[in-house]
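To the wet lab folks,

You asked to see what we're planning to order before we commit. Fair enough. Below is the target structure as tokens, and below that is the sequence we designed to fit it. If anything looks off to you, flag it before the synthesis order goes out.
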């Protein structure tokens, strides 16, 4: 059976608006959101790294109207870049302009992140999304007087998915206040269901702009539901970014759509894997039992390492933490032999290989 793309209805967006859409018809292993937006009288400098994905305050994935995964549009965009191994499709100005057209593609391939992950949209089940849009003024120092555009979403439905045996993405995020100097800014996550923990995507901002110099050190501690705590990482921000780089096995720089080198890991972000030596089928993720707990402690005091511009904690400084957790027992196999071969709907024939800038 060939893969199919099942389209959601297109939805118009405006500043400070919420959009939603639901669709059924298959077990989706991948969701794609193409965002086209026109912004008048100002564009945030940070938009140069994620286009209008920056304007999505919260993008929630739903199953039968219940939220199962959520993160900011910006974080979905960067996570999809890291796990797809390349630059996501986007276009945006690096400076303010009187009128600009921007676009960004968020391509979340759950099965690529965790083999066997899927969203059950079969039978009467419905898979949906909800997106809350802000405006340029909400996300940066430069205001925006108008925002309008369109979101086109679709899901990839491969053959051979046993919906009774899949990992369900339970991806959740939390925002920590980094505006006050502290050696003990704590992210505390207790898991209530069994599954696989891939790790944590972490992004730090200096008053809305992604920055490497806010967090100076971080520690990660795991406490199983039965047993004593283990400190699995203790190091500097630079060392944590090195762990992230090694996990993906990617060079420090990769070419963008124009052939120019850009950093594989964008400014101010990293992925901290919850990695084990076994569990190979699940990308060496850590098996989670109900009651297992992770704590990440951030230290934003002192001076950043010499190759970073140090950020003094102040108003608007934040730390975003996204737990990439997949609920369920070990799934059955998924037929990936026809991935990207066939597509249906308005964007018929568009595959990952053809998705250039």
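Sequence we intend to order:
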């Amino acid at each position: 059976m060939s893969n199919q793309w099942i389209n959601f209805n297109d939805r118009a967006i405006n500043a400070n608006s919420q959009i939603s859409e639901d669709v059924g018809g298959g077990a989706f292993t991948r969701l794609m959101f193409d965002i086209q937006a026109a912004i008048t009288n100002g564009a945030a400098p940070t938009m140069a790294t994620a286009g209008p994905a920056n304007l999505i305050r919260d993008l929630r994935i739903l199953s039968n109207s219940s939220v199962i995964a959520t993160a900011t549009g910006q974080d979905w965009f960067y996570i999809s870049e890291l796990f797809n191994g390349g630059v996501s499709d986007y276009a945006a100005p690096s400076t303010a302009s009187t009128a600009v057209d921007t676009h960004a593609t968020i391509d979340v391939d759950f099965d690529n992140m965790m083999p066997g992950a899927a969203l059950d949209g079969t039978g009467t089940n419905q898979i949906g999304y909800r997106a809350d849009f802000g405006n340029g003024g909400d996300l940066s120092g430069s205001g925006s007087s108008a925002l309008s555009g369109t979101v086109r979403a679709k899901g990839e439905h491969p053959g051979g998915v046993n919906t009774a045996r899949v990992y369900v993405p339970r991806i959740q995020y939390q925002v920590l206040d980094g505006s006050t100097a502290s050696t003990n800014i704590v992210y505390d996550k207790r898991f209530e269901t069994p599954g696989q923990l891939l790790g944590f995507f972490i992004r730090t901002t200096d008053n809305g702009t992604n920055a490497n110099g806010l967090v100076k050190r971080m520690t990660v501690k795991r406490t199983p539901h039965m047993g004593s705590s283990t400190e699995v990482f203790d190091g500097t921000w630079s060392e944590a970014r090195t762990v992230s780089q090694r996990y993906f096995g990617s060079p420090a720089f990769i070419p963008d759509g124009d052939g120019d080198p850009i950093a594989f890991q964008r400014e101010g972000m990293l992925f901290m894997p919850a990695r084990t030596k076994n569990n190979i089928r699940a990308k060496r993720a850590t098996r989670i039992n109900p009651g297992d707990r992770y704590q990440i402690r951030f230290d934003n005091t002192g001076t950043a390492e010499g190759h970073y511009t140090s950020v003094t904690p102040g108003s608007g400084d934040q730390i975003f933490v996204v737990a990439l957790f997949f609920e369920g027992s070990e799934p059955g196999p998924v037929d990936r032999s026809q991935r990207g071969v066939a597509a249906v709907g308005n964007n018929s024939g568009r595959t990952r290989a053809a998705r250039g800038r």
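Structural context that might help your review: Residues 168-330 form a domain with the Jelly Rolls fold (CATH 2.60.120.20). The two ends are 30 Å apart (CA to CA).

Thanks,
Computational group
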